[in-house]
Design brief:
CATH architecture of chain D: Orthogonal Bundle
CATH class of chain B: Mainly Alpha
Structural class of chain D: mainly alpha
CATH topology of chain B: Four Helix Bundle (Hemerythrin (Met), subunit A)
CATH topology of chain D: Helix Hairpins
Strand content of chain D: under 5%
Shape of chain B: globular
Bound molecules: iron/sulfur cluster
Strand content of chain B: under 5%
Largest interface: B-D, 87 and 75 residues
Number of domains of chain D: 1
Number of strands of chain D: 0
Helix content of chain B: over 70%
Radius of gyration of chain B: 20 Å
Oligomer: heterooctamer
Radius of gyration of chain D: 17 Å
Order of helices and strands of chain D: HHH
Chains: A mainly alpha (122), B mainly alpha (163), C alpha/beta (181), D mainly alpha (104), E alpha+beta (179), F alpha/beta (207), G alpha+beta (374), H mainly alpha (379)
Chain lengths: 122, 163, 181, 104, 179, 207, 374, 379
């Protein structure tokens, strides 16, 4: 455990703490300073001036989900790409081509999805 | 010092985990999962796996939890509003506790040999990943591809029916 | 609630006032001529002129028929229903008068169809099937004058709100009495 | 720091996951519990990697395994959620007890 | 306009905005008097009553024509016998006693000005009349005259029909004939 | 209409259209809806301190009046004009937000008809305190040219408390800006008087 | 209420009902559009109007003819002068008043400028609908210039009450000609600038091209008129096909679209502004001297009769139907508001679009609620 | 790690927070002023001298504004969402160097850290949208999630290409690597992808579909008021600043200036100001774009992201990696990516996005119509 490792990540923790505290402090301040006057009407959800009707969430566009999956897949790919980026120059040549095959396979997936028309919203 | 950090992370992990299995609202469960994942990333950090901690955040914290939340929002949330455990929950509890005891005893009995930690850096990791593990690495891409195509097919069939 | 303050607006028949001159332009004359020929198919239809507009007065039962005729006949081609007006002649037996202003974009004709409705049962067949633009005009007439449209029962209010009582377009509906001064 | 902390944490998390898998009805929650269990494994692996006395090769081994586990987990989850969504749309239900997939 | 080459639309837009960025802002800084947008002479602000400087009385005779014609019925007026007329100081037999306009109601249509036969009412250049109460803008005769005086002085206003509406008492009859 | 005993503010009841007949010419008392001094801070700390801070807050509030973008009729066009380049309400820190949750001022610009009465009340209620209302134009003030109409609310103050009335039909943009400035003035004055007001309110509460 | 019924009726097939309006930044006034969406896709819409129903037609029955002009100002509060003109034409037709030449020219000049101002408002608001703030400000900048001119002529920025029965209220000021020419110069540049800023922008094209298509036939069936109809390829402009006032003397172009989509409706208006400038230029060059108003009594009592006039307001075919019973107040006034009919076609245009499109399609119809609800 | 060090860290972190708050306040004013200039207005100029106090007034007002919790909202999630949006954005700042030595923690994995953290803010928006239990918020939240995750990929890949080029993920080393040529020259395609994806991540015009006022009335933020809303606002402007800073660091050479004849503290200050000037320029471009462009539609946004940006970003990576691998001169990247950009634009124009013939409006002369009419009248 090197010294800089500890310092750096402690810094991350500290910043996270400070950020959280700052935001909480802000909420607290507003709690104290801001007037509060509850009423049922005020707390009713905004719907362009019409009393809100109960909403039904069923089957909202499933197309969104395809993008989520695509995102996961390419996110995972990024995980492999990052170490690769640092090593491919010094590593045996196979490494370079390996990754090209890897990306190729995933791009094939993208192409498949594209061809299937899922990226289109129609 | 690191024990303190570990404790913090462990608390996050465990509370998140309990949140997942105990929350009555499924979105809370998903967010608890996020907490557990962030905690796990902390544990990884303490285990000197800097890169993996970030991977954990990126994949679990980012992608996986988003996917879960996303699909929750694509469904009727009222269905999930109140979650009940099924009737086997006491059995499940007993099994879990029993298993915990078993594992705990075995861990405690065996004890650990070394007490020094060592780290590895990303380049080494990369080298071993891409040379020693080249085949699994390529297979991973295939797995991903299959997951993608499978999911798309599943979702798409749906669209077809709509029309 | 007090009645409106101006009592000098009353039925138009009572007032001895000059009546407007009627004149038709070239195209109006043409229309008048060809309309006269074909109007005989519709019993009870009267053709007249008001200022520069050829007007056909017709029975409400014949309305949809003549509308379809006017729209789909090649030489008329009234493809565009400009406006539906209701006039409330308060003291008449035939109290309401529906006026349909038709325009032929293709042939540049314009004319009006008039239908008189009794006060006790102001019902008229809907022309929604002929021109889609009749939709809101009819709903408006229903809102403001209480005209009923055959084939379009239970019209929800368009301009007024749910629960408004009375038909504010009618002459008998009072003006708001504003008492600030 | 000792390895035993990692092991204990992993054990606890794993058992929570087991409980979740067994006790919850919702398919989504079961999936999440599985994720917890996978995480427990990851923690364990990281622990072993960190405390490995066999040099960097073993460390890399542990971390590489974790990477693969995470990869597979993500892929599995994406697919599983798609299936759940699909089932939901067909049956309007995500409770495992009540899903009768075979009957279709 | 013909089909354009790629990205011309994007770049055109950016060019338009950058060009107007370099131009001077057109903003008038309102409350500062010298930086306001100029009011045109014909601007119709709220109605005001005019003041006859010749005989030091309002032009208005309280004939109520404007009151009747106002589409929003926002005015009221009352006339009285003009004391100055009895003293021979003014041509006006009747004069306004009280006049009230609810400027909150006025729709600035200018009909009152059109119908007034005595040049007694004018659309002034007043518009800053925001008030805290609903009825705070009911202005009475004095306020109307004040507004009018400001307007008169600003525009060097003269009555449109000076002969007819001047308040200067008529000279004896024969002189009128000769003129 | 009800007066909540605890908070001593009007809470318009949200049921159905127009409120019961109210005497014309006096709508709500302005200022009931916008007492900004009603916070924990003001309740706990001594008046001497809060009065000062209220003045500071009032300065901030008056310099950053965000409006609900809410044009009803013709006046809305002049309201937009007031936001446009030539008049630029942004100079005063006035910007519009689409949601009432982020707004401080509701500029009722245009004719309020009975069908719209409910939404207006609702939107007003949904704005967070402190909030103000500007009635722009003669329609919103008292019905204006539609005073004979069967469907127009004779002034928006029948529905919600109004702070500033801007006359005109439509008021020219400068007039609206002047109205905004009057409102700023009012906010400042209210804060200056908050000390006295507070004690008054306290007395009322005791009785 | 009816809305809720429909929720239950559709709740199996449709997931979400959203309310756009009455208070929504892009409903252009107080208009309520209830949309049922499947994700982002619109399944069904239901327009609700009446949130600005002021009962103008009824009020007209209790006002004298000269006072009614003020009410007509406030119907289509963006095309005020065109509305005044429509009413005055109706009364003039009824009373057979011949309007002096000069007044006709002044009317035409002002009405065309009014059309430009109105289209500028459309341009600005449409830009805002599309998500760009700057077009809005540019549009209003140009509009402000027109309004300044109006103020110098009529004394008011919006509610002019200038066009009177028999002519206009008063003669134009002395520097009117120069002012108009300067203004036209500004406007030409301004229109070009606006055109360059938005019309060719790829994103704007992508959002408006092929969206909200309506064919000419269907448009007519729905009673759509004005730029929205011309965008669908129907050549119909009352100024030419059924000329009123002195429009038959001018030479100008009529922009006609071919797709009937949002972009066409948008661009027809942009081109229309250019054509209006041409009309103003011609009118200003041969404006005669002379009277500005026919001799009309202050209290007008038209003969008994009824009259229907059509004019081309910036939004389309504005008809006024007037029944006179010989008294000083009309017996019945009916306005045929163009936006009212245009709005009916919204449902048709919104078929198969997204929520984001709803805003643009609605914007492209260019409604003014004062006119829709009256 | 001892106590004083940790206290020092706290102090530094607070300083960072303060710096960012100030920047945000300035940015809000700057944006209003910049937009005002673009629109030939003056912008806020009445609060304080030339409107300088405007943001402070806004901030204070927001703080003293009632904070409404809608009745149907999910309380916990509604309250925590602003934090979940703010925190990731703020955490990025740990590793962003403002000048050579001005950095809190110079992480070796800096770039990877940034990508990993930035994903998290999606969660906040989703939570805000869902927690508000408001339809607009829900639609907005879903839009936000769809948009952000779609543009995350090109964003990451553009960053990665820089990492490949610099052979390091350490921001400081990356900046040092640009001593001679800023990467913008070597990677024009990367810059384009980064800026576009960055704008989309920010949700700024033309990609502000998730809080589009004219469509979804503010999206996930509809129900938020007072302090909670201001945290969102803060996060948005902070992220704008972050993207601008990252653009400068990754593409425009960071604090590297043509000549820096100073040393020591003066040099730090000089390089810091040089850096800030560059950042201001980038921010101005962002505002400029905001002042010019309309918004795109959600489906166009998605297909643009996946069909153009993602493939382009992979091409960028390939290109960069291949050039390095085969040890070709670096200008090859520039040339090829410029060519690719051109081709892309050509296809955008021709292909999917605006594939219609553009001007469909023809002008028909009135005299022609009149002639036709009189003909027809005779018939
Ligand atoms: S202002 Fe004129 S019209 Fe009115 S009362 Fe006075 S004199 Fe008569
Ligand atoms: S301007 Fe019109 S509304 Fe105002 S007082 Fe005169 S007549 Fe009445
Ligand atoms: S006050 Fe006048 S301009 Fe304003 S909304 Fe009413 S009628 Fe229109």
């Amino acid at each position: 455990m090197t010294e800089s490792y500890v310092t750096n990540w402690t810094a991350v923790l500290v910043v996270a703490l400070v950020g959280t505290l700052a935001v909480l402090l802000m909420f607290l301040l507003s709690r104290v300073l801001a007037p509060k006057r509850h009423s049922d009407i005020k707390n009713s959800p905004y719907e362009c001036g019409i009393p809100a009707s109960p909403h039904h969430w069923s089957q909202i566009q499933i197309r969104y989900y395809v993008f989520a999956i695509l995102f996961v897949i390419f996110d995972v790919e990024a995980v492999f790409l990052f170490p690769w980026a640092l090593v491919f120059l010094d590593a045996p040549p196979a490494v370079f081509y390996e990754m090209i095959i890897f990306i190729g396979i995933l791009l094939f997936g993208l192409a498949y999805v594209w061809r299937k028309g899922v990226l289109q919203w129609k | 010092m690191s024990v303190v950090f570990f404790a913090i992370a462990a608390i996050l992990v465990i509370s998140g985990g309990i949140g997942v299995v105990a929350a009555r609202n499924i979105v809370y469960a998903a967010l608890s999962l996020l907490v557990a994942m962030v905690g796990t990333a902390g544990v990884f950090l303490i285990g000197l796996a800097e890169f993996l901690a970030l991977v954990q955040l990126l994949i679990y914290g980012g992608a996986v939890v988003i996917v879960i939340l996303f699909s929750l929002m694509l469904t009727k949330i009222q269905d999930f509003e109140f979650l009940t455990a099924n009737k086997q929950w006491p059995i499940a509890l007993i099994v879990a506790i029993f298993l915990l005891g078993l594992l705990g005893i075995s861990i405690l009995v065996e004890g650990s040999a070394t007490t020094t930690m060592g780290s590895t850096n990303i380049s080494e990791l990369g080298l071993s990943l891409f040379s020693d593990w080249a085949i699994p690495f390529e297979l991973a891409s295939l797995v991903l591809l299959i997951a993608l195509i499978g999911a798309v097919v599943v979702v798409r069939r749906d669209n077809g029916e709509d029309k | 609630m007090p009645m409106r303050e101006s009592s000098n607006i009353s039925s138009k028949r009572e007032i001895k006032a000059p009546v407007v001159r009627e004149y038709l332009d070239q195209r109006g004359e043409n229309l008048h001529k060809i309309l006269k020929e074909s109007i005989s198919d519709f019993p009870g239809a009267e053709i007249s002129v008001s200022i520069d507009m050829v007007t056909v007065k017709i029975d409400s039962v014949q309305l949809v028929k003549i509308c379809e005729f006017l729209k789909y006949t090649e030489k008329f081609g009234f493809d565009y229903l400009s406006c539906i007006t209701v006039v409330d002649y308060e003291e008449d037996q035939e109290r309401f008068e529906m006026i349909y202003h038709l325009i032929s974009i293709r042939l540049h004709h314009k004319m009006a169809i008039k239908v008189s409705l009794p006060s006790n049962d102001p019902t008229v067949p809907s022309v929604l099937g002929v021109w889609k633009s009749a939709d809101w005009f009819e709903r408006e007439a229903h809102d403001l004058f209480g005209i009923e449209f055959e084939g379009r029962e239970n019209l929800p209010p368009l301009l007024l709100y749910e629960g408004f009582e009375g038909y504010p377009g009618r002459k008998s509906y009072p003006f708001h009495d504003y008492g600030e001064w | 720091m000792e390895l035993i902390y990692f092991q204990l944490l992993a054990a606890i998390l794993f058992c929570i996951g087991i409980y979740g898998v067994l006790a919850r009805r919702s398919a989504v929650l079961i999936l999440m519990s599985i994720e917890l269990m996978l995480n427990a494994v990851n923690i364990n692996l990281i622990g072993y990697a960190a405390f490995s006395s066999f040099g960097s090769a073993h460390r890399n081994l542990g971390q590489v395994l974790v990477i693969f586990i995470i990869t597979i987990a993500a892929a599995e989850l994406a697919l599983a959620m798609a299936i759940i969504l699909r089932l939901y749309r067909n049956k309007n239900n995500v409770n495992v007890d009540e899903l009768d997939i075979l009957k279709g | 306009m013909k089909i354009q080459s790629p990205v011309v639309g994007f770049i055109n837009g950016l060019m338009v905005t950058i060009r107007s960025t370099l131009r001077r802002p057109v903003t008038a800084e309102y409350p500062a008097i010298e930086k306001r947008l100029p009011l045109s002479n014909r601007y119709m602000g709220f109605p005001a009553l005019t003041w006859d400087y010749d005989v030091e009385e309002p032009y208005c005779t309280g004939c109520m024509v404007c009151v009747r014609e106002c589409p929003t019925q926002c005015m009221s007026a009352q006339m009285k016998d003009n004391p100055q007329h009895e003293k021979g100081l003014s041509r006006r037999r009747k004069i306004i006693e009280s006049f009230e306009i609810n400027l909150g109601r006025c729709i600035l249509c200018g009909i009152c000005v059109d119908v007034c036969n005595f040049d007694a009412i004018e659309m002034s250049h007043e518009y800053e009349l925001s008030k805290y109460q609903r009825n705070a803008n009911r202005v009475n005769l004095n306020q109307l005259l004040d507004m009018g005086v400001v307007y008169q002085n600003k525009l060097q206003w003269t009555p449109k029909q000076p002969q007819k509406n001047s308040g200067i008492p008529l000279p004896p009859k024969q002189s009128e004939d000769s003129s | 209409m009800e007066i909540d005993e605890n908070t001593n503010i009007h809470i318009p009841k949200y049921d159905g259209f127009l409120p019961a007949e109210k005497p014309l010419g006096d709508g709500y008392k302005a200022g009931k809806g916008n007492n900004p001094a009603d916070s924990v801070f003001n309740r706990v700390l001594p008046n001497a301190l809060t009065a000062k801070s209220d003045q500071l807050f009032a300065l901030a509030r008056k310099s950053s009046l965000w409006t609900l973008s809410f044009g009803l009729a013709c006046c809305a066009i002049e309201m937009i004009s007031a936001h446009a380049s030539h008049h630029d309400l942004d100079r005063f820190g006035v910007v519009t937000w689409p949601s009432p949750r982020q707004a401080d001022v509701m500029i009722v610009a245009g004719t309020v008809v009975k069908k719209m009465a409910d939404p207006i009340k609702l939107l007003y209620e949904q704005m967070p305190d402190p909030k103000w209302v500007i009635a722009m134009g003669s329609c919103a003030t008292n019905g204006g040219p539609y005073y004979k109409s069967y469907s127009v609310v004779m002034g928006v103050d029948h529905l919600i408390p109004v702070d500033v009335y801007v006359p005109g039909c439509p008021p020219r943009p400068e007039a609206l800006i002047y109205g905004v400035m009057q409102l700023q003035e009012k906010i400042k004055n209210d804060a200056n008087q908050s000390f006295e007001k507070e004690s008054l309110n306290a007395n009322e509460g005791e009785q | 209420m009816q809305v809720h019924q429909q929720v239950s009726e559709y709740s199996d097939a449709i997931d979400l009902m959203v309310n756009m309006g009455p208070q929504h930044p892009s409903t252009h006034g107080v208009f309520r559009l209830v949309i049922w969406v499947d994700g982002e896709r619109i399944v069904k819409v239901e327009p609700h109007i009446g949130y600005l129903h002021r009962g103008s037609e009824k009020i007209c029955e209790s006002e004298q003819y000269s006072q009614i002009v003020t009410l007509f100002d406030r119907l289509d509060y963006v095309g005020n002068l065109n509305n005044e003109l429509a009413f005055c034409l109706a009364v003039e037709k009824l009373t057979e008043t011949v309007v002096p030449e000069r007044a006709e020219y002044i009317r035409v000049i002002l009405c065309e400028l009014n059309r430009i101002a109105s289209h500028m408002l459309f341009y600005g608001v449409y830009g805002l609908d599309a998500g760009a703030t700057t077009p809005m400000l540019y549009g209003f900048r140009e509009r402000e210039r027109v309004q300044e001119l109006f103020e110098s002529v009529t004394g008011a920025r919006m509610m002019h009450n200038y066009i009177r029965i028999g002519g206009v209220k008063e003669d134009v000021p002395d520097d009117f000609d120069e002012n108009v020419l300067v203004l036209l110069d500004h406007l030409k540049r301004g229109i070009d600038e606006c055109d360059r800023l938005l019309s060719q922008n790829e994103m704007f094209l992508a959002r408006t091209k092929g969206v909200g298509i309506i064919t000419g036939e269907d448009a007519l069936d729905y009673g759509v008129t004005g730029p929205a109809l011309r965008a669908s390829g129907v050549i119909e402009d009352v100024r030419v096909t059924d000329p009123y006032s002195i429009y038959s003397r001018f030479d100008f172009g009529i922009p006609v679209g071919s797709n009937g989509d949002c972009w066409d409706r948008y661009y027809v208006r942009v081109e229309e502004m250019r054509e209006s400038i041409k009309i103003v230029e011609q009118a200003i060059s041969d404006i005669p001297n002379g009277d500005i108003s026919a001799k009309v009594r202050r209290i007008i009592r038209p003969p008994v009769g009824e009259v229907f006039v059509r004019t081309e307001s910036p939004r389309g075919d504005l008809g006024v139907f007037l029944v006179s019973d010989g008294s000083d107040k009309p017996y019945r006034v009916k306005v045929r508001p163009p936006s009212f009919a245009n709005l009916q076609a919204l449902e048709y245009m919104l078929k198969d679009t997204y929520i984001a499109d709803a805003v643009l399609v609605l914007g492209s119809i260019d409604i003014i609620m004062g006119e829709v609800d009256r | 790690m001892n106590m004083p060090e940790i206290v020092g860290l706290f102090f530094k972190a607070s300083l960072l927070l303060f710096f960012i708050l100030m920047v945000v306040l300035i940015l809000t004013l700057a944006e209003r002023k910049a937009l005002a200039r673009i629109q030939q207005r003056k912008g806020p100029n009445r609060v304080g001298f030339k409107g300088i106090l405007q943001p402070f007034a806004d901030a204070l007002k927001l703080l003293t504004k009632e904070d409404i919790l809608p009745a149907s909202a999910n309380k916990q999630i509604f309250w925590i969402a602003p934090l979940a949006v703010f925190l990731p954005g703020f955490l990025i700042w740990v590793t962003i160097p403002l000048a050579k030595e001005v950095v809190l923690a110079n992480l070796d994995m800096g770039l990877f850290y940034i990508t990993a953290i930035s994903v998290l803010s999606v969660m906040g928006l989703l939570m805000a949208g869902w927690g508000s239990a408001n339809k607009w918020a829900m639609i907005g939240g879903l839009r936000a999630a769809g948009q952000l995750i779609s543009y995350e990929i090109p964003f990451i890949m553009a960053i990665l290409a820089i990492g490949i080029l610099a052979q390091s993920f350490n921001l400081k080393e990356i900046v040092d690597d640009q001593a001679r040529w800023p990467f913008a020259i070597k990677q024009p395609l990367g810059l384009f992808i980064f800026l576009t994806a960055g704008l989309a991540e920010l949700g700024r015009t033309p990609f502000d579909i998730h809080h589009a006022e004219s469509e979804v009335v503010g999206g996930p933020f509809v129900e938020y008021s007072g302090a909670h809303w201001s945290v969102f606002y803060l996060a948005e402007y902070m992220n704008t600043f972050t993207i601008a800073v990252l653009t400068v660091l990754l593409f425009l050479g960071g604090w590297q200036s043509p000549v820096l004849p100073f040393s020591g503290i003066v040099q730090t200050v000089a390089s810091l100001s040089w850096f800030l000037i560059k950042t201001a320029l980038v921010i101005w471009v962002i505002f400029w774009i905001r002042g010019t462009y309309p918004r795109v539609r959600i489906d166009q946004l998605m297909s643009f992201g996946w069909k153009i940006l993602v493939p382009a970003s992979f091409i960028n990576i390939f290109l960069t990696a291949s050039v390095l691998y085969y040890a070709l001169p670096h200008w090859v990247i520039t040339v090829v990516s410029l060519g690719f950009l051109g081709v892309t634009f050509y296809f955008i124009k021709k292909g999917s996005l605006a594939g219609h013939k553009q001007n469909t409006v023809t002008i028909i002369n009135s005299s022609d119509i009149r002639a036709q009419l009189s003909n027809r009248a005779e018939v």
